[in-house]
Write a structure and sequence with these properties.
Chain A is of the alpha+beta class. Chain A has 2 domains: 184 residues, no CATH class; 105 residues, no CATH class. Chain A has a 5-stranded antiparallel beta sheet. In chain A, a hairpin with a 5-residue loop joins strand 6 and strand 7. The longest helix of chain A is centred in the first third of the chain and has 25 residues. Chain B folds into 4 domains: 161 residues, no CATH class; 291 residues, no CATH class; 42 residues; 74 residues, no CATH class. Chain B is built from 23 helices and 21 strands. In chain B, a hairpin with a 4-residue loop joins strand 18 and strand 19. In chain B, helix 1 packs antiparallel against helix 4, helix 1 packs parallel to helix 5 and helix 5 packs antiparallel against helix 6. The mean pLDDT of chain B is 85. The chains are: A alpha+beta, B alpha+beta. The interface between A and B is large, with 48 and 57 residues.
C-alpha cells in the first residue's frame, strides 16, 4: 500500500522506509474497523504542514533575513502578518473537519470492471460550510466535495472493482487543505462496509436449451408479449430490452420486464458447460442469468456447491448473481 | 486542475497591486511592458484563448532580460533585481497552467511587496500593504476552494488578516532585533539625497524645490532664535572657478573651542541620506553616537547614514573656534584659481587698500551686496567662465550659493581666509509634535571667515540681500510667483494644522515603527516594566502573548462548531420540560408530550390548563406538520408565561 498522498508525503523512497512508515502508521493511528456513526473529534484529526506549507515557511525565512539585513520595519510587519495568518490557517483546517458525523451507506453490487460506489453520509451539524474535503483510498481514487451547513450529504467514492467477491472499502483518508493549502489536516475512516462484486458478464451468448420438461427450445420472441412493467437498467441488460420510449419521456434508462411464461423454464447448469476456466464459466453463467432474467424466464442455477431453485424476479436474480460472485470464496 | 477565469483575474490583480508602487522608479519601458503583459493575459482569459507558445515567452523573457542588462549596465544589484522580479512575475502569468504556477505567483507577489519597502515605508505604504494582503489572501483562498464566491472569499481573507494583526503586533514588539546588515549590500542599495559635498551654481536652488524632510529636531530646553539656527553640514574649501569642494583637510589637529556659552541640547532624527556627515547646530561640540569632528567642525559618522538615525547633540551658540588655525589650512582658505574673475580681484584690491582692517573689508563687502541692486531669486541666469564676475557685475541675480561663493572669493582675493559652509537654515516648528522639521528646501550656504582673536566667524551674505530668508524662511524672501514647493508657501491655518498633524503622525511612525531597533526595543520594554531584558525573556513573553491570543482565537473559531438547537419548537418544549423538572416533575425520555401533560394535569391540577395547551400546540407544530407563524408565536408565548409556582406575579 502506498502512502496516503504521494504529493504531500514523499517518504516512500525505499522499501525499508516504506515498511518503516507502515509500521509507524499502524502504531500511531488507529487501525480498527468501525461501525455506526463516527464523529471527528480532535483525537482523530491530525495536522502537519503540507509541502506547500514548508515552501512558504522558506519564503518567510528569506523575507525575514531581508528584513534584518536591510532593517525594514514594514518588512517585519509584512513577514509577521503573513506568518501569523499562515499559522492561523491550521485552526481553520482543523475546524473544516471537526465535528463531522460520518456513517456508511448502502452499497449497490457491481460487476467486475465497473466502479463500486462506497457511499458515506456526512452530517455537518454546525452552521459552518465545510470546503474542499478530499476522500481517497490508498490507490489515489479520490472525490472532492463541500458540505453545506446543518445537512447530511451522501458522498460516494468510486473504486474500480477488479475481482468478484466481497470488496472491502479498506481504510480511507479524509483530508483538507482549506483555506490556504499550507496545512494537511486528515483523519482515517475505516468502516465495516463491503461491496459485492459480481463476475463480469461474458460476451452475449445464446441461452442453453430449456429443460426437457416441456421440450420447447429456446424461448421465442412471443414470450416478450407479456409486458409486465419497467425496472431500472442494470449493466448487462440486453439492448433490445431497453425502453426507449421511456427514455424519450425522460424517465431515465429503463428495461422492459416480462412476466414469466408458464412452462418456459431452464436450468443454467455448471456441469453442462464446456471445459473452460472456472472464471470463464462464472462469467458465462452471469451472462445467462442476466439474459434469462431480462427475457422473463423461470430459471435456476446449478453450481458444484449447490443450486438455486427455478424462480424469477429481481430477488432471484440478485441471489443467483451473489452465488456466482462468491463461488469458491467460502463466504456465503 | 483547471484554473478558472475569476482566479486568473485575482492573480492579475495581485501582480498589478504589488508592482504598481514600483512604476515610480522603474524605467518607463519596463512599466509599459509589464502593463502590456497583464493586459494580454486579461484579454486571453476574457476571450478564452490559448496561452502563447513557450518559445514566444522564452523569446520575450530573454530579450527583456537583455534589455534590462543593457539599460542598467549590469544584471546584479537591487534595482535590477526588482525590475527582473516584476517582469518575471508578469511573464509567469502568461504561462499559468496549473495550480502550482498559481501558488508560485502568490508567493512571488508576497516577495515583491517587500521590495517596495526599499523605496517607501510611510504610513500610506503600510495601508496599501494591508489592502494588497487582503487581495492576495482572498485570491489564495480562492485557489484552494474554487467554489467560494467573491464576497465570502474576501471576508475569509479579511478575518484572517484581522486576526493576524494583533499577533503580528506582539511579534513586532518582542521579536529580538538584530543590528543589520548581515551581509554586504549591493552598491545601489541606497540613493544619495540632500546636500552633496560640492556646490556649484544651481545646487541649492534645485534642493529648495524639494519638500522632503531632511531631519527633525527636538530641543531639550528653549529653542534658539530662528536666525541662530544654522545646521552645519559639509564645509567647502576648494574652488576651481565654478564648483566648491570639500577637498582634503591639511591638518589632523582636532578643532578647538574657547569662550563658550551655555550649551544647547537637542535630539536630531536624521533621514537616511547615504552620506557620511551628520547635521548639528552651529557650532557642534558633542554627539551621543560615534562620530568624528573634522578640523573644520564638520561632524562625520564612521558609517554612511543608511537608516534613520537618532542622536543627541550639544552645541554652543557663541564661541571662538580654532583660534590657532594650522598654517596649511590658512593657505587653503586663501587659495584661488588662477586667472579667473579679474574684475572681482580688482574690486577686492580696492577695498583692501581702502580698509584699515579685515573687519572693515567684510563690512564693505556686505554693504556692496546690500546696496548693489542684488536680487534674491530661485531662477538666476546662467553664468559664464568668470562666474563671480558675471554675477557681481552683470546679472546680480542669485540664490544663496551665488552669494556665499562670491563673498568668499572676494575675501580671499582681499587676503582674508574664508570658506563656504553648507547645511540647513531655520526649520519649521510643529507645535503639535513639539519639534522642528528641516526640509530640503531649507538647504542653505553661508560663509565662515577667520579673524585674529576671534577664530572662524560666521557671515551670511544672503542675510544682507534677503534678511527675510534667515528670519522667516524662504517663502518670505522670494516673489510670489517663484516656483516654490507647496509646503514652503504660506497656506491657510487649517492646512497648516493638517500638515502638522500629518507630519506629527509621520514622526511617531518613524520613531516608533520604522525606527524600532534594538535600542528602541530595550527602551520600550523597560518602559513596559520588563527588567533585565534578555532574549530568552523576550521570547518567553512573545510566546506567552501569542499563545494567549491564539487561545482566544481558537475559542472564537471553534465556538461555531457547537451545534445550537435550531428547531424553535423543540427548544421551547425543552424549556417547559426544564421548568417542570425544577418543580420536581421531570419527563422521562420515553414519555410522549401528551402523556406527560396528562400526568402533570393529575399531579398538579393547577397546571393542567396551561400544560394541556402547550402540549397541544407542541404536538400540532411538531408532528402534524403545522407550519404557521401565528401558531408558533402562540406556542412560544404560552411557554413564556408558563410558571410552575403559583402567585408569584
Amino acid at each position: 500500500m502506498a502512502g496516503f498522498n504521494q504529493s504531500y508525503i514523499s517518504l516512500d523512497k525505499t522499501p525499508v522506509l516504506k515498511s518503516f512508515k507502515q509500521t509507524f502508521r499502524n502504531w500511531a493511528f488507529r487501525r480498527t474497523v468501525e461501525t455506526g456513526t463516527v464523529v471527528l473529534n480532535q483525537r482523530r484529526i491530525y495536522i502537519i504542514p503540507s509541502k506547500q506549507g514548508f515552501v512558504f515557511a522558506l519564503v518567510l525565512a528569506l523575507m525575514l533575513l531581508g528584513d534584518i539585513n536591510y532593517n525594514l520595519s514594514l518588512g517585519y510587519i509584512l513577514t509577521f502578518l503573513l506568518a501569523t495568518s499562515a499559522g492561523l490557517t491550521m485552526l481553520y483546517a482543523f475546524r473544516n473537519l471537526a465535528q463531522l458525523e460520518i456513517h456508511a451507506g448502502h452499497i449497490e453490487p457491481v460487476f467486475v470492471g465497473e466502479q463500486a460506489r462506497f457511499v458515506f453520509h456526512f452530517n455537518n451539524p454546525s452552521s459552518l460550510i465545510r470546503y474542499q474535503i478530499h476522500l481517497h483510498d490508498d490507490a489515489e481514487h479520490e472525490t472532492v466535495f463541500d458540505l453545506p451547513a446543518q445537512r447530511s450529504t451522501p458522498i460516494s467514492l468510486a473504486i474500480p472493482a477488479t475481482q468478484r467477491g466481497w470488496m472491502d472499502s479498506e481504510r480511507l483518508s479524509l483530508y483538507t487543505h482549506f483555506p490556504l493549502g499550507l496545512f494537511h489536516a486528515w483523519t482515517y475512516i475505516h468502516f465495516d462496509v463491503r461491496a459485492l462484486v459480481y463476475p463480469k458478464p461474458a460476451a452475449p451468448q445464446t441461452l442453453p436449451a430449456a429443460s426437457a420438461q416441456d421440450g420447447t427450445g429456446k424461448v421465442m420472441a412471443k414470450g416478450d408479449d407479456d409486458f409486465s412493467g419497467l425496472r431500472n437498467y442494470v449493466a448487462g441488460d440486453a439492448l433490445p430490452r431497453i425502453a426507449w420510449k421511456a427514455l424519450a419521456r425522460e424517465q431515465g434508462l429503463q428495461v422492459k420486464q416480462f412476466s414469466a411464461q408458464q412452462g418456459y423454464s431452464l436450468w443454467l447448469d455448471w456441469a453442462q458447460l464446456p471445459n473452460i476456466a472456472t472464471e470463464r464459466k462464472l462469467e458465462l453463467l452471469t451472462r445467462w442469468v442476466l439474459d434469462a432474467d431480462a427475457q422473463g424466464l423461470m430459471y435456476g442455477l446449478r453450481l458444484p456447491d449447490g443450486e438455486v431453485m427455478q424462480q424469477h424476479g429481481t430477488a432471484h436474480r440478485a441471489e443467483c448473481l451473489r452465488r456466482l460472485a462468491l463461488y469458491g470464496m467460502g463466504d456465503k | 486542475m483547471k484554473l478558472s477565469a475569476p482566479l486568473i483575474y485575482g492573480l492579475i490583480a495581485c501582480i498589478l497591486l504589488v508592482s504598481a508602487p514600483h512604476a515610480e522608479h522603474l524605467p518607463l519601458w519596463v512599466s509599459a511592458l509589464g502593463m502590456a503583459l497583464l493586459g494580454w493575459r486579461t484579454f486571453l482569459t476574457a476571450s478564452a484563448r490559448a496561452l502563447p507558445a513557450r518559445w514566444l515567452l522564452l523569446l520575450i523573457t530573454l530579450s527583456s532580460v537583455a534589455a534590462i542588462g543593457i539599460g542598467f549596465h549590469t544584471l546584479f544589484g537591487r534595482e535590477v533585481g526588482v525590475t527582473l522580479l516584476i517582469l518575471l512575475a508578469a511573464l509567469k502569468l502568461l504561462e499559468l497552467r496549473a495550480a502550482r504556477d498559481a501558488i508560485v505567483l502568490i508567493y512571488l507577489s508576497c516577495f515583491i511587496i517587500i521590495t517596495n519597502f526599499f523605496y517607501s515605508q510611510s504610513i500610506l505604504t503600510a495601508l496599501y500593504l494591508l489592502l494588497t494582503l487582503l487581495i492576495i489572501l482572498a485570491t489564495w483562498v480562492h485557489l484552494q476552494t474554487g467554489s467560494l464566491a467573491f464576497k465570502p472569499r474576501l471576508r475569509l481573507g479579511g478575518v484572517l488578516l484581522l486576526q493576524a494583526i494583533p499577533l503580528s503586533l506582539i511579534l513586532f514588539v518582542f521579536f529580538p532585533r538584530i543590528q543589520g546588515p548581515l551581509w554586504g549590500m549591493p552598491q545601489d542599495a541606497y540613493a544619495k539625497s540632500g546636500l552633496s559635498d560640492s556646490m556649484s551654481p544651481g545646487t541649492m536652488s534645485k534642493l529648495s524645490l524639494s519638500d522632503a524632510v531632511a531631519f527633525r529636531v527636538t530641543f531639550a530646553g528653549k529653542a534658539p532664535l530662528r536666525e541662530q539656527m544654522y545646521w552645519r553640514g559639509p564645509v567647502l574649501w576648494d574652488f576651481d572657478g565654478t564648483t566648491w569642494k570639500r577637498g582634503i583637510n591639511a591638518t589632523l589637529q582636532a578643532p578647538t573651542l574657547a569662550d563658550i556659552s551655555q550649551p544647547v541640547n537637542y535630539t536630531v532624527t536624521l533621514e537616511p541620506h547615504n552620506q557620511h556627515w551628520l547635521f548639528a547646530l552651529d557650532i557642534p561640540a558633542r554627539l551621543s553616537i560615534a562620530a568624528g569632528f573634522a578640523p573644520d567642525f564638520q561632524v562625520l559618522s564612521p558609517d554612511i547614514v543608511r537608516t534613520r538615525t537618532r542622536y543627541n547633540a550639544s552645541s554652543y551658540l557663541s564661541y571662538r573656534a580654532n583660534l590657532n588655525e594650522a598654517p596649511l589650512q590658512m593657505r587653503r582658505a586663501l587659495a584661488l584659481p588662477a586667472g579667473v574673475n579679474p574684475l572681482t580681484r580688482q574690486l577686492a584690491a580696492t577695498w583692501r587698500a581702502q580698509a584699515k582692517s579685515n573687519v572693515e573689508v567684510i563690512q564693505l563687502a556686505l554693504t556692496y551686496f546690500n546696496r548693489g541692486g542684488f536680487e534674491y531669486t530661485l531662477e538666476p541666469p546662467l553664468l559664464g567662465l568668470n562666474s563671480v564676475d558675471d554675477f557681481l557685475f552683470s546679472s546680480k541675480q542669485g540664490f544663496c550659493e551665488h552669494y556665499a561663493s562670491s563673498f568668499v572669493f572676494l575675501l580671499r582675493a582681499a587676503g582674508i581666509p574664508a570658506r563656504v559652509v553648507t547645511g540647513y537654515q531655520g526649520g519649521e516648528y510643529n507645535d503639535l509634535g513639539g519639534y522642528y522639521i528641516l526640509r530640503q528646501a531649507d538647504a542653505h550656504a553661508w560663509t565662515e571667515v577667520w579673524l585674529a582673536e576671534r577664530g572662524w566667524v560666521r557671515f551670511d551674505p544672503t542675510a544682507a540681500i534677503a534678511p527675510g530668508r534667515i528670519q522667516n524662511g524662504l517663502s518670505e524672501s522670494l516673489p510670489d510667483n517663484a516656483a516654490l514647493p507647496f509646503m514652503s508657501r504660506n497656506p491657510p491655518q487649517w492646512m497648516r494644522d493638517l500638515r502638522f498633524n500629518l507630519d506629527a503622525m509621520a514622526n511617531h511612525w518613524n520613531q516608533w515603527v520604522l525606527g524600532y531597533d534594538m535600542e528602541r526595543q530595550f527602551a520600550f520594554l523597560t518602559r513596559l516594566g520588563m527588567e533585565d531584558i534578555t532574549w530568552q525573556r523576550m521570547a518567553f513573553n512573545m510566546l506567552g502573548g501569542i499563545f494567549l491570543l491564539v487561545g482566544i482565537f481558537t475559542l472564537i473559531l471553534l465556538r461555531r462548531l457547537i451545534v445550537k438547537q435550531h428547531d424553535p419548537v423543540q427548544a421551547a418544549w425543552i424549556k417547559v420540560c426544564k421548568k417542570l423538572a425544577q418543580a420536581g416533575l421531570p419527563r422521562p425520555a420515553h414519555e410522549g408530550a401528551q402523556d406527560y401533560a396528562n400526568r402533570i394535569s393529575i399531579t398538579r391540577p393547577d397546571l393542567a390548563q396551561p400544560i394541556q395547551v402547550i402540549a397541544a400546540h407542541y404536538t400540532a407544530l411538531r408532528y402534524l406538520g403545522t407550519n404557521d407563524e401565528d401558531k408558533l408565536r402562540a406556542f412560544k408565548s404560552a411557554v413564556k408565561n408558563f410558571k410552575t409556582i403559583k402567585g408569584r406575579e
